[in-house]
Structure to design on (663 residues):
């Protein structure tokens, strides 16, 4: 007789049956409860695959104002090795040497000889070709690790500004360093104010200057006067971010931001504006600049005599770039007022920039008559080219100084405007600058249709033994178009020596480069050329000088 | 009766255990599909990033400028190629004025026949 055939009471007592029933019921409740918990409360797995995790921490791209990709992150390969699995270190090193000729043989040999280690990096960031060549070596102990790598599709374009990261993706220079935290968060690309096309034009013209001049360095920039947006900024020799700082010192130096320079006569319009604002100068006032003048302990001379030098206006002083005239104008307002004006336009420091910082200025230790006389024509004061370029924005905006901006989008409410001169002063100086290009030292800067207004600057370079007459910084600061100013352009050449001829003043060096940049960049910046009729009318209304 | 209840209960519990097991398997399978899709998304995003980098490389001004000039004969616009829209309208208007209206076109003059001479 089987258990099932026996009477129930014989097999299961009611009490046992109840215990089993309760136990089963508990199991049932537990299963149902657990099922419900799984359905409603089970946490979503945070780690749902390596590939997804990689995307989550992908460093953000950097793009130009139009969305053109400047920097991105791609998955690349790095080469590693397991020293404990290598039998013949020398054979492996010799093989690696055929793929990476510049490899440090001793260093790699030491690394691979350490049998206690299971993992060592051989090279971070290898190309596909190198990867294939290493695979062809057939060394089992060598393996590739996929990891993110920063890629710069435009090569050295805007290299100084963009900067670079180390192999671990930490920003070390430029935008990569300044906005490192933001970039590490990933997400939307970081959009710069730079326009890649204008940047290219600027860099090509600076590079092209080499065909005509032997020079030590150059820098240039294009700035929107209404927003402060930096549309292009370059320093030659260019820096290639792909080299991660392994470059000659000259290429590492960002002359636009980090070098202080005495920029010479491009200061003269500031001196004139300071005097006009102080009420110590009128457009019709006349000066005698026919002979050198002694101010303080310095004697100021003009390298070339001016036409009608015994009676010239402030306009003539700008147009023909008279050092004597500029010093005489400064003498009217005195060193303190000149200092205050230059401080007001940001040349004595204190300008707040959300982005790359500029070198702090080097200013006279004592603002006496001598300092005033030389600063009036751009000597004895050294600032970064970007700091100086911003001082021309008031001439273009009717008197308001703007701060450089590097990031888009630009909220109109956050643009920093600071009134530093009256509209009358700004318009008057702008007209002088336009005449400087039409009939003065800046003729080579003219870009037909774009009404270039600007000023040349030629400054001898300071040395421990005084100024060297054979080594110049030549510069041209420009505004265009003069009848409705939209952009400031600054070009500075370091020791530009024409390959033919002997003249090396800014009128034939920096002015010409600035003109070429404007002629090519203006259409890219949607600046429509103006007719000569419009320009003539504009000049008539703004020109206050006889 | 009690025996039937007991057997029924065992069957229900067994059925529930199977159901939970299958649900778990299904969830894992679904999770696997989700992971697979996420992997595909990641791969696609990676491919897009590569293609964007390639696009940026191929469209860099340094390359496009010479191509546009040499292959297409394009040059940057010169200032004399610009004109105000008003001037354009005026110019178009003038040209229309100089064009003969269709109805005003005079019939072609045929050479006089010798008979008419």
């Amino acid at each position: 007789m089987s258990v099932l055939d026996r009477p129930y009471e014989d097999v299961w007592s009611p009490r046992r049956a109840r215990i089993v029933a309760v136990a089963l019921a508990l199991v049932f409740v537990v299963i149902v409860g657990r099922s419900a918990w799984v359905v409603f409360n089970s946490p979503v797995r945070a780690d749902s695959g390596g590939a997804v995790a990689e995307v989550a921490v992908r460093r953000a791209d950097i793009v130009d104002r139009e969305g053109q990709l400047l920097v991105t992150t791609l998955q690349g390969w790095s080469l590693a090795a397991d020293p404990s699995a290598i039998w013949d270190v020398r054979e492996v090193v010799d093989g690696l040497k055929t793929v990476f000729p510049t490899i440090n043989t001793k260093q790699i040999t030491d690394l691979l000889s350490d049998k206690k280690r299971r993992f060592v990096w051989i090279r971070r960031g290898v190309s596909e070709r190198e990867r294939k060549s290493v695979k062809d070596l057939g060394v089992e102990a060598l393996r590739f690790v996929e990891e993110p790598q920063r890629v710069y599709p435009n090569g050295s374009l805007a290299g100084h500004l963009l900067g670079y990261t180390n192999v671990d993706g930490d920003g070390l220079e430029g935008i990569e360093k300044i906005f490192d935290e933001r970039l590490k968060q990933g997400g939307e690309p970081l959009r710069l104010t730079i326009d890649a096309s204008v940047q290219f034009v600027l860099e090509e013209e600076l590079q092209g200057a080499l065909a005509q001049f032997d020079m030590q360095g150059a820098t240039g920039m294009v700035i929107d006067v209404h927003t402060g947006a930096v549309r292009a900024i370059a320093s030659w020799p260019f820096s290639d971010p792909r080299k991660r700082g392994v470059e000659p010192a000259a290429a590492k130096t960002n002359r636009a931001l980090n070098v202080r320079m005495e920029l010479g006569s491009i200061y003269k319009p500031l001196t004139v504006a300071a005097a006009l604002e102080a009420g110590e100068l009128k457009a019709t006032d006349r000066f005698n600049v026919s002979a050198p003048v002694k101010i303080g302990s310095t004697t100021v001379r003009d390298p070339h005599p001016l036409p009608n030098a015994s009676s010239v206006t402030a306009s003539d002083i700008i147009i023909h770039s008279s050092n004597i005239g500029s010093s005489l104008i400064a003498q009217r307002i005195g060193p303190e007022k000149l200092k205050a004006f230059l401080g007001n336009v940001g040349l004595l420091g204190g300008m707040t920039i959300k982005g790359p910082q500029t070198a702090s200025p080097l200013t006279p230790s004592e603002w006496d008559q001598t300092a005033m006389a030389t600063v009036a024509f751009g000597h004895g004061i050294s600032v970064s080219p970007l700091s100086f370029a911003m001082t021309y924005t008031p001439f273009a905006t009717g008197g308001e100084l703007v701060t450089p901006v590097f990031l888009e989008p630009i909220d109109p409410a956050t643009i920093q405007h600071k009134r530093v001169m009256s509209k009358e002063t700004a318009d008057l100086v702008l007209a002088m600058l336009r005449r400087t290009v039409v009939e003065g030292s800046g003729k080579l800067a003219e870009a037909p249709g774009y009404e270039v207004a600007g000023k040349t600057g030629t400054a001898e370079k300071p040395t421990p033994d005084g100024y060297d007459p054979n080594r110049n910084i030549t510069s041209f600061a420009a505004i265009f178009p003069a009848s409705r100013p939209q952009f400031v352009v600054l070009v500075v050449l370091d020791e530009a020596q024409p390959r033919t001829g002997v003249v090396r003043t800014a009128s034939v060096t920096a002015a010409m480069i600035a003109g070429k940049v404007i002629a090519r960049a203006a259409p890219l910046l949607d600046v429509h050329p103006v007719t000569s009729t419009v320009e003539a009318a504009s000049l008539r209304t703004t020109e206050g000088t006889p | 009766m009690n025996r039937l209840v007991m057997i029924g209960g065992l069957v229900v519990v067994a059925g529930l255990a199977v159901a939970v097991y299958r649900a778990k398997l299904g969830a894992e399978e679904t999770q696997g599909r989700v992971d697979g899709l996420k992997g595909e998304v990641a791969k696609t995003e990676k491919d897009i990033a590569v293609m964007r980098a390639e696009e940026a490389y191929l469209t860099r001004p340094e390359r496009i400028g010479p191509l546009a000039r040499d292959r297409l004969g394009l040059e940057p616009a010169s200032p004399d190629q610009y004109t105000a829209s008003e001037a354009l309208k005026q110019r178009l208007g003038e040209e229309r004025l100089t064009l003969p209206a269709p109805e005003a076109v005079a019939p072609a003059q045929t050479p006089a026949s010798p008979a008419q001479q």
Summary: Residues 2-75 of chain B form one domain. Chain B touches chain A at residues 2-3, 6, 9-10, 12-13, 16-17, 20, 23-24, 27, 31, 34-35, 38-39, 41-43, 45-46, 49-50, 52-57, 59-62, 65, 76-77, 79-80, 82 (CB under 8 Å). The CA atoms of residues 57 and 63 of chain B lie 8 Å apart. The helical segments of chain B are 2-58, 61-72, 85-98.
